[in-house]
Write a structure and sequence with these properties.
Bound molecules: ligand JDE
Distance between the termini: 34 Å
Largest sheet: 5 strands, parallel
Order of helices and strands: EHEEEHEHEHEHHEEHH
Radius of gyration: 22 Å
Helix content: 25-40%
Number of strands: 9
Strand content: 15-25%
Strand order of the largest sheet: 2-1-6-5-7
């Protein structure tokens, strides 16, 4: 999979070269390219924002630098590869595990990381009409506001990239985790020692009856989901 990220703070995205994602890039499972939006300005001050039409607080990002930057990324396509263009914004649709799975099946993602009050709305509208682009998505991590789209883009990239074949050592862990195939939160996990600060690991987990352990874990998963995320349960959602 190829991923391109456009930002006015490219250094913010440096952690993408660490750990499992760094390894995936050296194995060529993943290619991540970071681009500086200011390289696509044409004035002496490298301006990327201006005041909003219609008034209001704050600044809006100019369409021209975004148009130039996304054009440049698209122009680097090899062999008719088609892209999904993603704007990370609190005004977007909620990003979740099902969306991560859909995105992991695509070949090319381009992230546009906005700052200030957002990006001129015509940028998303324009690129939705471009032949090289399969889909334009506006995605939100959750109901809160960040200073910029970079952290949201990194979270989405990590959620998607770990689903690519060969990125996670043991792919079994993918189906057993929270938001995995069960749709429930995961049961609590324990390791050694069996007693720590007076707290004992449930005896059943140490007895090795795999049927009983599976039953206990699924009851715990339902209980935890009901307690902290009842919206995930079909009856109560
Ligand atoms: C992404 N969940 C939250 C913030 C923004 C007032 C203040 C700021 C593209 O436009 C953006 C992007 C961001 C940063 O992303 C997030 C986010 N997922 O906050 C604003 C809008 N209004 C605009």
């Amino acid at each position: 999979m190829r991923i391109d990220v456009i930002s006015i703070f490219p250094e913010y995205l440096e952690p993408l070269s660490l750990s499992l994602l760094g390894k995936a890039q050296s194995k060529s499972v993943l290619e991540i390219n970071i681009h500086n939006l200011r390289d696509h300005t044409s004035d002496a001050h490298h301006t990327v924002d201006d005041t909003p039409y219609g008034g209001g607080a704050g600044m809006v990002m100019l369409p021209e630098p975004w148009g130039e930057a996304i054009d440049a990324v698209l122009a680097s396509a090899t062999g008719g590869t088609r892209a999904t263009l993603i704007f990370t914004t609190p005004a977007g649709a909620l990003f979740h595990q099902r969306r991560a799975e859909t995105l992991a099946a695509t070949e090319w993602l381009i992230f546009a990381c906005g700052r200030y009050e957002g990006i001129d709305a015509r940028v998303a509208e324009h690129f939705a009409t471009r032949a090289e682009i399969d889909a334009v998505l506006e995605l939100s991590l959750g109901d809160y506001v960040l200073n910029g789209g970079e952290v949201a883009a990194m979270a989405i990239i990590e959620a998607v990239a770990r689903l690519l074949p060969g990125v996670i050592g043991n792919p079994d862990s993918l189906s057993e985790e929270s938001h995995g195939t069960s749709g429930l939160l995961e049961a609590p996990a324990f390791t050694k020692p069996a007693i720590w600060r007076g707290l004992e690991v449930p005896a059943l987990l140490r007895e090795g009856n795999h049927g009983k352990i599976a039953e206990w874990r699924s009851a715990q998963a339902v209980e935890r989901t009901r307690a902290v995320r009842p919206d995930l349960l079909p009856e109560e959602g």
